[in-house]
Input
Amino acid sequence: MKKILVCAFVAIFVVCAVCAQGSQESGKQVLKVGATPVPHAEMLNLVKDDLSAQGIDLQIVEFTDYVTPNTALEEGELDANFFQHIPYMVSFNTEHGYHLSNAGGIHIEPLAVYSKKISSLDQLKKGSLIAIPNDPTNEGRALLLLQSAGLIKLKDPSKLDSIVQDISENKLGLKFSELEAATIPRVLPDVDAAVINGNYAIPAGLKANEDGLFIEGADSPYVNIITVKEGHEKDPAIVALIAALQSDEVRNWVASTYPNGEVVLTF
Output
């Protein structure tokens, strides 16, 4: 019996020693980043091995909304997130009293007007229904896009957070359905047209350059960024992450994966 116990103890000791050795050998810094699936999580997965070679264990947590990843970052559950543009982050900080900061810009996902009922904006009729995002920054962004398309005029064309009530001219009497951004691709068949964010248009099979009736320009201020808590912008792991994302590897991947302009790099 004693012999069996001794053997068992030795076996457990050896297993624990091996585990400890493996842990010491790995010794990687964990970097937990929240992201929406497309294209953000795709891009992060692309650079996992590069970061691992630098001693960084990139752990990707996927989200399908625009609120939870910011809350998780503010509360310390994430080290960074990758899904939003600067105007949205600024608005979120103001609304919630958060302390989020831009660590570096990566790309633009051009906003576009799509439709299953018409092939040109000229075919819109009086009273046509257009779906737009209902969160403050993306609603303003959508209205600016519609203004650029000549469909409406806003009281202040430079204001980034305009709402429907800020429309000063609407010759066609267009009606607007303000919806959560993620749901808009699903209602596209039920409206005359819709303004859809790139990260929701892509998984819905919509290609900006092919399907978009009007597309946001590459000079858009809505650059998607790596977001961190204030004071962590220059953390070595964050700097390494941004360098990995701003690489030729990512550039070549975007060119081959999104040849229709769904993702436009800014570096």
